[in-house]
From TrEMBL:
Superkingdom of origin: Eukaryota
Presence of keyword Nucleus: yes
Cellular localization per UniProt: Nucleus
Compositionally skewed regions (Polar residues) per UniProt: 484-493
UniProt name for this protein: Uncharacterized protein
Alphabetic keyword roster: Nucleus, RNA-binding
Organism: Hyaloperonospora arabidopsidis (strain Emoy2) (Downy mildew agent)
InterPro entries: La_dom_prot (IPR045180), La_HTH (IPR006630), La_xRRM (IPR014886), Lupus_La (IPR002344), Nucleotide-bd_a/b_plait_sf (IPR012677), WH-like_DNA-bd_sf (IPR036388), WH_DNA-bd_sf (IPR036390)
Record's GO cellular component terms: cytoplasm; nucleus; ribonucleoprotein complex
Length: 520
């Protein structure tokens, strides 16, 4: 066998191992789909890590010919597990839970590198998410219980991506109450406590502490203020981070509240940390609110622009409201009923407030009341064409018309948008100015417009309800694209579905490129 053959064998045996196959719905479905449960090589070659080693069937066949985990079919072009899955899943006995690994998703290689001093073999790595953000917790399944126990016993001496984790066996973790599981996952190993702190909203302390960890996000603590006792708690997963922050607060970046410099005591005693006060779990009765909406926001307006406008009216000593901005032409924020009328009057009294070059309007509504958006648009820019009997594309139509417009279609002028799919009988054009719109329609006057041998018989400028509906649909489509872009950006920032360890996060051997959620 070639030098890469052992790696191929190891990779394939991982895919079909008890640990991975039990969790791998895709492979299970492929096994059910094909005769005799044999998964074709072509399917396996879509797995990114295997494809990086080989996409040659003969090489794969030779590599796994003596495997104790998988077997080949008669045609030597597909394989399956040799033995059925055991009825009992012993994975929890070989699994460790590590907590306190920060908010940045560690790679599989970073986790394996942190465990390297213990010389243990990872079978499966599951990086846990909470509200689509890495929670600092990983579940790692090992080859045997002895490896798992060594990791638990040595957790305090390990370092993964700069973090020393807390460790517990999955069996013991599962015995914890829900409250104790949450406490373990938070991995509070140190806290800074300030006493006799003047009463302020928690957001005030967050703002005052921001300079402390602005340049190093790892130092950011969980901040808790208890009004009854006047105590401020900064909670850390890493003792070293707490020590660094304590030094910064005492020297370079002190926090001063009502002319009083806060002094923080470092606490690392586990019993003291466990006995710290907690925020009440009882749901607070929500204060009745109203919603102030901002409409007619112009294009290319950023959320910061909206915030700056709102800040011109809001009292700087109060907490800034959370602003929801749809990325198009409306934004909103909630205010208490007590201050709603006064604030709305102040916003309405602003002298010609603009966002994106357009004068905005303000509306005071109930939380469940929908803002009726009156879509703003320039009339006479939309052309409907119909009667197409042939195959042409949007670009064909756009290029043909803009070519006829000549220099008038330069610098972004001319046909800017086409709503049309190949084989549709009709569609819409959006032109950049009313005079050009008339010229475009005139192109169809003498028997229609020919595009790549296909005749478009007629076209007309739309108006009235049809025109209004077009612009409303266009706004709705832009809003959906905006929300999808936001969702995609959030997905990218949290590392895809890395909380599952990815198909490449499982011991660093999985991974199927080209499938959603299967990374590496």
């Amino acid at each position: 066998m070639t030098s890469v053959a052992p790696q191929i064998k190891k990779q394939v045996e991982f895919y079909f191992s008890d640990s991975n196959f039990r969790r791998d719905r895709f492979l299970q479905e492929e096994t059910k789909k094909h005769e005799g449960g044999f998964v074709p090589f072509d399917v396996l070659f879509t797995f990114k890590k295997l494809a990086a080693l080989t996409v040659d069937g003969a090489v794969l066949e030779a590599a796994i010919s003596d495997s104790d985990v998988v077997e080949l079919n008669e045609s030597k072009n597909a394989l399956r597990r040799k033995n059925p899955l055991p009825d009992q899943d012993d994975a929890p006995k070989c699994t460790v839970v590590l907590a306190g690994l920060g908010k940045t998703l560690p790679t599989v290689d970073e986790i394996k590198e942190g465990l390297q001093p213990l010389d243990v073999e990872c079978l499966y790595i599951d990086r846990k998410n909470f509200r689509r953000t890495f929670s600092g917790v990983v579940h790692i399944e090992f080859k045997d219980e002895d490896s798992m126990q060594r990791v638990v016993d040595s957790a305090s001496s390990l370092k993964i991506n700069g973090y020393v984790p807390n460790g517990i066996s999955m069996v013991d973790y599962q015995k914890l109450s829900d409250e104790d599981k949450v406490e373990f996952d938070k991995a509070t190993n140190a806290m800074l406590v300030a006493k006799g702190v003047p009463n302020k909203p928690t957001t005030f302390f967050l703002d005052e502490l921001l300079p402390v960890w602005k340049d190093d996000a790892k130092l950011r603590a969980r901040v808790r203020y208890f009004e009854e006792s006047g105590e401020l708690y900064l909670l850390f997963t890493q003792v070293s981070f707490a020590e660094t922050v304590q030094k910064l607060l005492s020297e370079e970046k002190p926090v001063v509240v009502d002319e009083q410099k806060l002094t923080f005591e470092l606490v690392t005693d586990k019993d003291a940390i466990k006995a710290r006060p907690r925020s009440s779990n009882k749901k607070r009765k929500r204060e009745p609110v109203k919603v102030i909406h901002i409409s007619n926001i112009g294009p290319r307006t950023r959320l910061d622009d909206v915030k700056k406008l709102v800040a011109t009216v809001m009292d700087s000593s109060t907490q800034s409201p959370f602003i929801e901005y749809d990325g198009l032409d409306t934004a909103s924020f909630k205010v208490s009923i007590a201050e709603a009328s006064d604030l709305f009057e102040k916003f309405s009294s602003l002298d010609g407030p603009e966002l994106g070059g357009k004068k905005v309007s303000f509306h005071l509504l109930e939380p469940d009341e929908e803002l009726k958006v009156d879509v703003q648009y320039e009339e006479g820019l939309i052309v409907r064409f119909d009667g197409i009997d042939g195959e042409i594309s949007r670009d064909d139509i756009k290029d043909a018309i803009n070519e006829k417009l000549g220099d008038k279609a330069s610098d972004g002028a001319g046909v800017a948008f086409i709503k049309y799919q190949i084989n549709d009988k009709d569609g819409y054009l959006r032109v950049t100015s009313a005079p050009l719109t008339k010229e475009v329609v005139d192109m169809f006057a003498d028997g229609g417009l020919e595009v790549n041998g296909v005749k478009i018989p007629s076209a007309a400028i739309i108006e009235g309800e049809e025109e209004k509906t077009f612009w409303e649909d266009a706004r709705s489509a832009r809003y959906k694209r905006f929300k999808q872009t936001q969702s995609n950006r959030n997905q990218f920032q949290r590392g895809g579905r890395g909380g599952r360890g990815g198909r490449g996060g499982r011991g660093g051997r999985g991974g199927r490129g080209g499938r959603s959620g299967r990374r590496h």
